[in-house]
């Protein structure tokens, strides 16, 4: 069985083909560049660019896998959460191809795609586990019991961690998306010059808050002359503050559930400092951390194709209507039957 995965929820057009026996056969990602001038994603421009790129990328993916359209047995597309006009491009193309090829189609939850993305790797986690989902729009801790069976343990009460990276990067004069840019300059930063708060770490529970940290760092940026070393030092301390918060809460979630496995997914899980420090900390408490290679942390079609495959194989999921949702909590998903 071969599934074509389509991802268009934000500013990446992702197309992939996943085979249930051979694994990933093709993975094409186009990251939109046109938002750089605006310092953030402009939804209308995003959907127009998806429309420009989606068919060429599908052709490229078929070529990469040495297949033709009629070799595809099913289609999985991101139906939410995300930007409605961007989601509609993937949904419409997906439904049209399913109709033309006479194959079933399944709407996929983008965050479930992230949550399952580590299963694209050889060392894949077994259920149950705690998932730390860290992206541009979400920071959540999830009790993942089985596919489709998720319980929200905690989440950010204000900004998402990726959003905080992007906003601080913008104030530091770095390009969008800010996370990778900030992380790069943080490498030249020195410890000890700045000290930023780690909000909510002393509060019981598993919720996060990043807006107080963001305001504190924004004030620091305003009160300093931004030479190259100062930018690096602020980026270094900011990155460490976010990483510390994510580690403290993840450890607490493992303690609360009694689970040993932590899965990190979403764009921020590509952050190298987070990957190294989280792995060290979780190892110390006898646990294991799973994260995927950076290309599967940020938005991609491979995680959508894989999630669609898992849903097709375990249930009947042929929904030939065009479903898209800007908000779609993981806890609303149903387990496979
Ligand atoms: O999962 P993702 O690609 O898209 C969403 O579903 O939102 O996540 C994008 C977010 C952006 O905020 C971006 O700045 C952040 O992930 N990000 C990073 C890194 N790579 C991407 N943040 C910190 N360090 C990185 N290396
Ligand atoms: Zn994402």
Describe this structure in words.
The protein is α/β, with parallel strands linked by helices and 337 residues long. The chain is built from 10 helices and 10 strands. The mean pLDDT is 95. Bound molecules: 5'-O-[(R)-(carboxyoxy)(hydroxy)phosphoryl]adenosine and zinc ion. 5'-O-[(R)-(carboxyoxy)(hydroxy)phosphoryl]adenosine binds next to helix 4 and helix 5.
Give the class from helix and strand content and strand pairing.
alpha/beta
Helix content: 40-55%
Report the mean per-residue pLDDT as an integer. 95
Q: Which parts are unreliable, with pLDDT below 50 for 5 consecutive residues or more?
A: none
Number of strands: 10
The biggest sheet amounts to: 5 strands, mixed
Strand order of the largest sheet: 3-2-1-4-5
Number of helices in the DSSP assignment: 10
End-to-end separation: 19 Å
- Compressed to H and E, one letter per element, the order equals EEEHEHEHEEEHHHHEHEHH
Relative strand content: 15-25%
Oligomer: single chain
In short:
This protein has 337 residues and is α/β, with parallel strands linked by helices. The protein has helices at 43-64, 84-101, 110-116, 161-171, 178-186, 211-222, 228-257, 272-284, 294-297, 302-314, and strands spanning 2-7, 12-19, 23-31, 74-80, 105-109, 129-134, 139-146, 149-155, 261-265, 288-290. Helices cover 41% and strands 19% of the residues.
Secondary structure topology:
Blueprint lengths: L1 E6 L4 E8 L3 E9 L11 H22 L9 E7 L3 H18 L3 E5 H7 L12 E6 L4 E8 L2 E7 L5 H11 L6 H9 L24 H12 L5 H30 L3 E5 L6 H13 L3 E3 L3 H4 L4 H13 L23
Helix pairs in contact: 1-2, 3-10, 4-5, 4-6, 4-7, 5-7, 6-7, 7-8
The structure holds 5'-O-[(R)-(carboxyoxy)(hydroxy)phosphoryl]adenosine and zinc ion.
């Amino acid at each position: 069985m071969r599934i074509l995965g389509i991802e268009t929820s934000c500013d990446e057009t992702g197309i992939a083909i996943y085979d249930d026996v051979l694994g990933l056969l093709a993975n094409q990602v186009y990251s939109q560049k046109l938002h750089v001038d605006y310092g953030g994603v402009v939804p209308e421009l995003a959907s127009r660019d998806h429309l420009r790129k989606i068919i060429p990328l599908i052709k490229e993916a078929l070529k990469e896998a040495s297949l033709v359209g009629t070799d595809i047995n099913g289609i999985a597309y991101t139906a939410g959460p995300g930007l409605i006009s961007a989601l509609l491009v993937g949904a419409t193309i997906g439904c049209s191809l399913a109709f033309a090829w006479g194959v079933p189609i399944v709407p996929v939850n983008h965050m479930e795609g992230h949550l399952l993305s580590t299963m694209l790797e050889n060392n894949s986690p077994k259920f149950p586990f705690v998932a730390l989902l860290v992206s541009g729009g979400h920071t959540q801790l999830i009790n993942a019991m089985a596919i489709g069976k998720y319980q929200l343990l905690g989440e950010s009460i204000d900004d998402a961690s990726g959003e905080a990276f992007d906003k601080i990067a913008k104030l530091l004069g770095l390009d969008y998306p800010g996370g990778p840019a900030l992380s790069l300059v943080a490498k030249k930063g020195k410890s000890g010059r700045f000290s930023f708060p780690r909000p909510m770490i002393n509060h019981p529970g598993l919720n996060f808050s990043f807006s107080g940290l963001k305001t504190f760092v924004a004030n620091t940026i305003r009160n300093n002359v931004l030479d190259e070393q100062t930018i690096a030092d602020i980026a270094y301390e900011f990155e460490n503050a976010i990483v510390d918060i994510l580690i403290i809460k993840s450890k607490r979630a493992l303690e609360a559930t009694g689970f040993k496995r932590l899965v990190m997914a979403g764009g921020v899980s590509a952050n190298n400092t987070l990957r190294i420090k989280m792995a060290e900390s979780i190892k110390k408490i006898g646990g294991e951390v799973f994260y995927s290679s950076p290309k599967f942390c940020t938005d991609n079609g491979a995680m959508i194709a894989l999630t669609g495959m898992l849903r097709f194989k375990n249930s009947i999921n042929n929904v030939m209507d065009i479903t898209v949702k800007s908000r779609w909590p993981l806890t609303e998903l149903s387990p496979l039957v």
